[in-house]
Every structure is written in structure tokens, then in C-alpha cells.
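Q: Structure for this?
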Amino acid sequence: MDVTPILENLNDAQRQAVTAPAEPTLVIAGAGSGKTRVLVHRAAWLIDVEGVSPQSLLAVTFTNKAAAEMRGRIETLLRLPVQNLWIGTFHGLAHRMLRRHWREAGLPQNFQIIDSDDQLRLIKRLLKNLEIDDGRWVPREIQWFINAQKDEGLRPQHLDHEGNADRRQMISLYQAYEEICQRGGLVDFAELLLRAHELLRDNAELLSHYRRRFQHLLVDEFQDTNAIQYAWLRLLAGDSGVPFVVGDDDQSIYRWRGARVEHIHRFQTDFPGTRIVKLEQNYRSTATILNAANAVIANNSSRLGKNLWTEGAEGEAIRVYSAYNERDEADFVIGRLRDWIDQGNARADSAVLYRSNAQSRVLEESLINAGIPYRVYGGLRFFERAEIKDALAYLRLISHRDDDSSFERIVNKPTRGIGARTVELIRSYARANACSLWRAAGAIASNDLSSRAANAVSTFMSLVERMARETRGLDLHDQVDHVIYASGLVDFFKKDKGEKGETRVENLLELVSAAKSFEPDPAEEMTPLDEFLSHAALEAGEGQADAWEDCVQLMTMHSAKGLEFPLVFMCGMEDGLFPHQRSIADPNGLEEERRLCYVGITRAKKTLFVTHAEQRRLHGMDNFSQPSRFIAEIPAEHIEEVRPRVQITRPMRSLHSRQGLRAATMPNDELGIRLGQRVRHRKFGDGVILNCEGQGAHARVEVNFETAGTKWLVLSYANLDLM
Ligand code: ATP
Ligand code: MG
């Protein structure tokens, strides 16, 4: 038996983990120490050397992308394709189980997955139906409440209102929401996990089947499992399953989504005799990057504590750039990306990371202007674009008439004269008769509507019926192709003059290509269309477009977890943005932000740029901020400040005149005056510099004082104290 390729390029600790006996194992180690590598090699080892059937492995990774990569890597190691391998995300695997056992799970066979947008819309509609004020009962908060309960494994009947009227209301909304979902066969993301757990918990036979089947449970990014995911794993493992989990407490970044790093401790109690393997050598980053990351995370108090080291080179210093504003920041990033590409490097080897999704827009604009291909992960997701969701709604309605959210989405899109009043009538009929909107529409079209409205509704219904008929038996992509035209969507968006409409039509056509390249799983019992629709809902998070093109990778720090790139930019490193404003005051929140920063830094292999802007327009507001405190936590010896190329004159956007770009001159830098600088004035008190004009004795600054409002002051008279 030739075991060399599997054990090649592993250090002693890694090898020990890979070849560990069939006992619960916890690999706890820092970023870039080879945890994912160990997991992949463990799978290959089990199959190839221990003779374990691929069928008895279950591997959980964090994203679909990681799952695909793991499958690929196992196949490369084994030099053969592995079929029937259960590798996926928690959601993906839960979904697979529910599809197989929909009956036992209490779901209709063609249940539909709804994403968080659909979920929110459903909640809004629910409030409207119940005539509940959505100002007092904020839909997003209700959504949050429902998901948080599900993540903890709690159904409405498990909840106690504790004598609190608000809580009682929340619980009853949760209950009502559940009824709608059950009626429409709708399953949200949190429900996938909860149902999959209940499925095993309540079906002894199934449970013992799966316990027998899955001997080995491999889990990556274990620190980010939430309560229900952990419960599912434990249930599945039982007394005989062998869990093999890898994780890093310093990279736990989903506390806000219910993830509990405490599971690392729980695991050791739940599985007595757990073997613990620590990996400390980092193979990813230069010593400079690694030391910077170590220094930052050392500021957290709640840690298991470990120190990473590398045999790698010292490497380049981390470059920090202070931009004037977000455009300047984007220009800087583009400039450096250009240099990178000109040096013959692959674009895909570079990543631009940011804290919040909204930051991507400006970066995207600059990349487009510069003609640099890029791809956004988790932002403008292909399957989440409005026109795509419209087309999917038609497809869903064809396959499942009782899908209310799809019905609402397209009943009057393209416009066909079904007004808000008609829809309201349909809704109230559905409410009164506890039926779907589709049924309600059919029932009242013949009775309660004016003849014009009735006509419009019947036209819509027969359109859907006709499409269902005409697409029956067609190949999946022909079905999609038929629907985007027959629904009138293509014509509808064509009328939208300009680039936007054009892009939307292109996206619709892209959906046909997506269907074409979609490979249904022959083992699935669903129709290819249903499978495709589930795929669309599940993959929405992972930007499918243009996968083949070499392009710069844009993503939030959260979605960068587990990935690595030779060149990394961390943008928007400003207090208030990162760490995020709402976390600053809360020590736990701040520590989670710091872990996220640790994740960001450790994505870089060779070159790391950190940028911050003095002034930033985000969500339509101008903010002035200080550089992120995390930058100050990086030891100075690892940092090199990048000086702007032009120092004296800088183009600047006037905040108040809104005249767009105009040239202005900064007063002497030696005075330490800069945009966003906090100052104190004898009479007006504390404020922030918004704008500067003129030079020398004529230099004037505009200051926004906290109490006195905005004032222009001549610097040489104002006697401002810098703070
Ligand atoms: P993260 O915490 O970011 O998920 P990780 O611990 O999962 O990181 P990997 O992604 O598995 O780390 O490994 C980081 C890099 O180091 C990868 O490029 C991997 O191929 C490489 N690597 C890991 N172990 C070794 C080794 N023993 N020899 C050479 N390269 C290695
Ligand atoms: Mg990893």
C-alpha cells in the first residue's frame, strides 16, 4: 500500500492527526497551520489506508466553494473520483437529508427554500395581514428573533413569555410565521438545520441508519458551529461515530449568528477521551504578517492561547495607506493591483477585503473604470439579483403553485393591471380561508372582482398554467429559456433603457447558461427544475458568475475565512467601521471584531496592504474617523506608511457646496491639520475639520463643532488645539 502521497508534506503533528486511531479528535490550531489540509488528508487516509468506504464519511465545511475544493483535493490525493461522498455545508447536508426524507420531516415533497430576503418579505406580509404596526414591530427584529430561536433549537411551543407582553407578541408572530411556512412548504435557512435535527431526533430508525452509515464525521471551522449544528452532529455521532473536528478559537466570528466557541470545551466533555492535537507551525504567511496577526490577537483576553511560528522568510513590511476619502482609497488599491498584474501575477491571487458589503460599490466602480475583471463574493450575488429572483419566482410557481412569496413577487410583474387593491383582496381571501394566494386568486377571480381585475388575474393564472404545460418534458435550460421569454420578463427589462436594463437582460440570459451547466444529481428524487431551484437558493451566497475568468477577488472579511491569497488589501480600517461602531462599547463585541481582524491579516501570504480613509461616504452619510485601533496594535516595526504621491495639492470633494470635485489646497501638513482631525476651540468647543482652503496666512478650515455647528475659521487666528 503506497501511503506516501497522503503523508507527504505533513509535519509530525499533522501526521499524528491524519493517522489518529478512530477516536474523537479535536485539532485546535491557529490560522494557516494546515487544519483544512489535515482534514482533507484524513479523509484520504481513511479511504485509502484504513479501507473506510467513502460512503461512511460525512464532511462539513464552511462554504460550498470549500466543499468543492475538498472534494477535488481528495480526488487528487486518491487519484480517483469519489462518488456518494457527503461533503457540504451544514445547510447543504441538512437540505440533502430533508429531500431524502421529506415525509418523515413533515414537509411536502417539493418544499422550497427561501432566503433571508424572502423571509423578510414574508414577515412583512404577515404583519400586514394581522394589521400589526411594523413601526412598533420591526420586521428585521422579528426575523432576527425567529432565526435566533431556531438556531437554539426552539419552537414557539418551547418558549415562555415570562409574563412579558412584548415577548408574548414575538412568540405569537413566530407561531404565525411557522404556520405560513408550513402551509406553503417554505423552508428558511435556520429551518433547514432545525428540521434536520428534529428529523433524526424523532425517527429512531432513520437515526440508527445514519449512525451506522456515517462512522466518521469530519468538521472544518468547528469554532463557528451554532447550537443546532452542534446538536445535530452529536446526535449523528451517538456513541459509536468518530467526530474529527478542526478549528481555531481565535477565528470565531459568527457569535452574532449563534456560533459558540464554547463548543470546543463542550466537545471534550461530550466525547470523553478526546484526543487533542495542536498545530503551531504556520505555512501560509511571512513572519512579518504572522507576527502582526499574533500581536493583534494577543489583545484579546478570552483565548485558549497559542503561538504561531513560521520557518518562512521575514517578508515585506505591511504597508499602511491613509487615504483622504473612499475614492482615493479605491484609486490606491487599483494602482497597486495594476502593478501586481503588470508584474505577471494572476489577478485571482489578489483579494480586496472589507468589513461591510456596502464598501464594495466604490471599489467595484473603480475596478470597472480601470477595466480590471473582478468578482464579488457574498455581495451582488447573482442569484439574489432582482431580475433573477423574478425569473426564479416564475419557475417556482410553475413547480409549486402554493408558493406565496413567488406569487406575490410576480403577480404583477411585468405589469398586467393587477393593482394593490386586487392583491389585497386575494390576500384577505387567503387569510380567511387559510389557503394559498394561488387558490384564493382562482376562487375570487370568478366572484368578487371587477371584470377588468378578474380578467387580469385569469390572464396571469393561465399564463402560469400554460408555461407549466409548455415546459413539461423540456431540458432544464430550455425550461428556463422558455420562461424568461414567455413570462414577458425579457421584454419588460428591454424597455428599461440604458445599461441597467441591458444588464438585467444579460443576467436573465446568464440564468439560462447557469441552467445549462447545472448538473443534476441522478441520485436525487426531485425534478431537475426543483433541484436547480434549491441550488439557486443555497448557492446565492457565493457569486457564481464568471467563475472561469481570472479576476480580482472582492469579499467581506467574514467570507474570506479559510481562504488565502498572496496579495491582500484590508480596506476601510477605521474605528467605527472596523471595529464596527456597535461593537466598540461592548468588550465581547470588540473581541469578536479583533478575531475578524486576525482572520483578515492571516489571509495574506506575502503582501498585505492596510488602508483607511479620513473621510468616507457610506450609506449616504459622510463620516470622519480615526484609523482603526487594530492598526495601532500591529507593532510599528512591521509597518511601513505609504506616503501619498502628491502631498501639497489634493482634489477634494466639498461637503456642503455639493459642487463636486474642485481643487483645494491643504494647509501646511506640519501644522498637523487634516480632514477629520479633531480640534478644540476656546469658544466653540470640540469639533472635526470638514474642509480646508487656501495656504499659509490665508488658510481657512471648516469645522463642525459638536455644539456650535459648522464654521469657517482662519487658521492663523483661530488658535485651534489639535486633539
Ligand atoms: P485557516 O485557519 O485560515 O483555515 P488552516 O489551518 O486551515 O488555515 P490550511 O489552509 O490547511 O490552514 O493551510 C495553509 C497553507 O499552508 C496552505 O497553503 C497549505 O497547503 C500549506 N501547508 C499546510 N501544511 C503544510 C506542510 N506541512 N507543508 C507545506 N505546506 C503546508
Ligand atoms: Mg482552514
